[in-house]
Amino acid sequence: MSTVILTQSEVRSLLPMDVCIELMAEALATLGRGDAINPLRSAIRVPDLGILGMMPGYLGSPAVLGLKVVAVFPRNHGTEFDSHQGLVTLFETEHGLPVAIMDASEITAVRTAAVSGVATRLLAREDAGDLAIIGSGVQARTHLEAMLEVREVRRVRVFSRDEQRRSAFAERESARRGVPVEAVASAQEAVDGADLICTTTSAREPVLFGDWIAPGAHINAVGSSIRTTRELDTAAVVRSRLFVDRRESTVNEAGDFLFPKAEGAIDDGHILGEIGEILLGQVTGRASRDEITLFKSLGLAVEDLAAAHYLLERARAEGVGARVELGGRVDATD
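Now predict its structure.
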C-alpha cells in the first residue's frame, strides 16, 4: 500500500472551510460519545528555539489512527514562515501501515478556525455579526473565513501590535472576502460593542480584558495553548460561561483557565461543558441573550486526524499528491 504525501498547497486546495466545519463537528461529537482516544500532548522545549510537540490520537468511526508532530517557533512571527511547522501522519488500522504524510501547518490553520466555527454556531447569538479579531496572522485569516461561514458578519475590526501588519491584513482580507475590514489602533477599540471576538495572538499576557466585553458577546480564545501564557485576563474568564474542546486538556494546559484558577477566582466547575457535549444535547450552550460565552480552544489530535482522513480520501479520489512505498515488510529470507 502506497503512502500519500500532501504538500501545504495541496492541503489548502482539498480542505475548504465549510467542509472542515462539518468534519470538526462530527469529530467532537465522536469524542463526546467516547469513541475516540485523545491523550494529552507531550512536548520538549528547546531553549531559545521553541517547542516540539507530539499529538497522537484515534477516532473510532471512521477508524483513523495517527499522530501530529509540530514544531512551534515563536521567532517565525513576522517572517514568511508560519510559527507552526509539522506533519500529520496516518496509519491504517489493520497492519499499522503508514498511509499518509501531510503538511500540518495548513491542517492546523483550517481545523482550528473550523472548530471555532462550530463553537460560534452553537454559542453565539443568532444575530451576532460585529466581529473583532485580535491578531493578524494565519489564525486571524482563517478565523475571519470561519466566522463568515457561520454568521452574517456585517462589520469587522482587526488589531495587532504591528500597525503595518494589521493594515495589510485589513486591505488583503477586505479584497479577498468581499467584506470591509477595518484596522484599528487598539484591542479595546476593536472589541468595543463587538458580539463576536476572536483572539488569535502569540501574546504571553492578556490582550482582552473583562471590562471591555459587551453583554451578549461570544469569544473564541485560540492563541494560547500552554499553561504559562494567556490572552484573557481573569475578569474576562470570570464574566463568561466557559466551554472547551476537552476538559482534561483545559485543566492541564490552558493558561487562560489556569491563571484565574490559581488566583482563586474560579474552579474546575467553571467549565460548563465540552463542545461535543453540546452537539450531543448533553449540555446547554447559550442560556440567555445577554450572557457572555467563551470557547477556550487548545486543539486536539482527533481534529487533525478527522481533517487528514478526509484529505486522504479526497487525494485518492482525485489523484492528488505523491505516492511512495514506506510500509515495512518482513524479509522472507530472515
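Residues 126-296 form a domain with the Rossmann fold fold (CATH 3.40.50.720).
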